[in-house]
Amino acid sequence: MNFEEIKNTDETYGAKTFSRFPVAFAGGHGATLIDTAGKEYVDFGAGIAVNIFGANDEEWKQAVIGQLNKVQHVSNLYYCEPQAELMRLLCERTGAKRVFFANSGAEANECAFKAARAYSFKKYGAGRHKIVTLKNSFHGRTLFTLTATGQDAFHTLFDPFVSGVDYAEANMASIRKVADRSTCAVAIECVQGESGVIPLDREFVRALESYCKERDILLIVDEVQTGNGRTGKLYAYEHYGVSPDLVTTAKGIAGGLPLGACLFFGKTENAFAPGEHGSTFGGNPVCCAAAVNVVNRLTEEFLLEVQGKAEYLRAKLKGFDGVKEVTGLGMMIGLATEKSAKEVAEACLKKGLLVLTAHGRVRIVPPLTITKREMDEGLSILKEVLK
Ligand SMILES: *Cc1c(COP(=O)(O)O)cnc(C)c1O
Q: Given this model, what pLDDT does residue 46 score?
């Protein structure tokens, strides 16, 4: 199919859930993608912070193909080596006690919310089930995670929502007002990605941690977007010096294959017993083999390089005409721009650069392996578009 045929077929048969940019990609290498007409683009989006090593990374592909040559799926009725290896890796790197694998960010969060309720039920009995999330948060598209997403725009069509979820502003006064004796967990994103790449205040996150610890309220950190090296640390909560009880991640963890994970720290390790949660595909061996490759390569040395690249990009972007503010953390960058973010993204696409938007801001989340040449190429297009 040529591009017009792909587009027409998609628009004829696809559920109308997406408004897509007018392009289809046929291949790529690193942070460069190639469309169906052969035009190249610098990729500052990584498939929404997913393709950590970009396209066609040789070592990652070998890990995937190696597992495909063995067996593609076994179900969670049986043990599975790549799953076991990934569990151990994640626990050793983070200090988590246990891991549950899902297929997406929403499912990882669904697991954490259910784990928080199960933990509290087993310890305190019924009724201590409230989950507090932040206004402007984003936690996913399933009914529970959509309920937990603190943005009214998402809450119009799907009533009734899951009960026992409430929203606080990102400050302790608001948390104290919203959380009560029925609260079992508070969920945060260290950097609110979908709502404009806004990092939470460090003092707030630390105060929230103490507040939760004193009351045996579980602190859930949603690292779906911020995790797996994106901010220059393995997980973004490390920047904040806090110890969460549950951490969820997905997007980048398997470098482009669907995998989500919920990490259980300390007292939450017995939240679930056999049969209390599950997944058919979760922890698929091919996805886990890919993730083992990803996590093994997110070494301290690699993460330092990511921090260096992030500083380089940020310093350049701050100097561009038309940029009002540069936000975010590490290689998760938000830009408040004079032109509208949508206009910027569309103009960049025409010139051969992919950027994302988030709540009226430009969002830049490139593959972590992006080269200096690719960064400079992307920056020069962005500079021209922004001025
Ligand atoms: C993307 C995202 C999700 C949802 O992940 P899916 O894989 O789309 O279900 C949840 N939380 C955060 C912070 C995200 O960025």
A: 98
Label residue 131 by pLDDT band (50, 70, 90): very high
Phi, psi dihedrals of residue 377, rounded to the nearest 5°: -60, -45
Report CA torsion sign: 83, 102, 286, 264: negative
Ligand 1 pocket (Cβ < 6 Å) reads 104-106, 109, 138-140, 189, 193-194, 222, 224-225, 250-251
**Is the pTM higher than 0.90?**
yes
- DSSP 3-state of 131: strand
User: What is d(CA 310, CA 318) in angstroms, rounded to the nearest whole number?
Assistant: 12
Which residues make beta-bridge pairs with 198?
192
184-208 residue pLDDT tens: 999 999 999 999 999 999 999 999 9
Tokens, residue 122: 């087993």
Query: Taking the domain 71-297, which CATH number applies?
Result: 3.40.640.10
Where are the chain's structural domains? 3-56+300-386, 71-297
* CATH fold of 3-56+300-386: Aspartate Aminotransferase, domain 1 (3.90.1150)
